[in-house]
Write the structure tokens for this entry.
Amino acid sequence: MARIIAVDDALAIRSAIKLILSHHGHDVFDFENGKDAIEFARQESVDLVITDLNMPEMNGMSLISSLRRLEDYEHTPILVMTTETADYKKKKAKSVGATGWIAKPFTEERILKALNKVLS
């Protein structure tokens, strides 16, 4: 199964993502902010990154941009999971390297569908 980084400043969101994905056999490494996630990413590679946009320390846009500069993450799928719905945010996220978008609130079905789409 996949190794996944989940980044969100809300513990409840991180816990839900970890519970859902772990239940389906994935290894999930969760972080409160982009700064902690990028430090992990410099040492470990994963198959997928799921990140919020609005976080302290390092926001999702900066995280995506930083990950894309790492050799191991040039082609790793990155999904943005956020309450933001503005088209310009989606375009900006895509321009810095996001692969896809999952709107909050999310369902288990939506997460798994997005995961299967980008990992297949």
About this structure: The chain has one domain: 3-119. The beta strands are 3-7, 27-31, 48-51, 78-82, 100-103. The two ends are 12 Å apart (CA to CA).
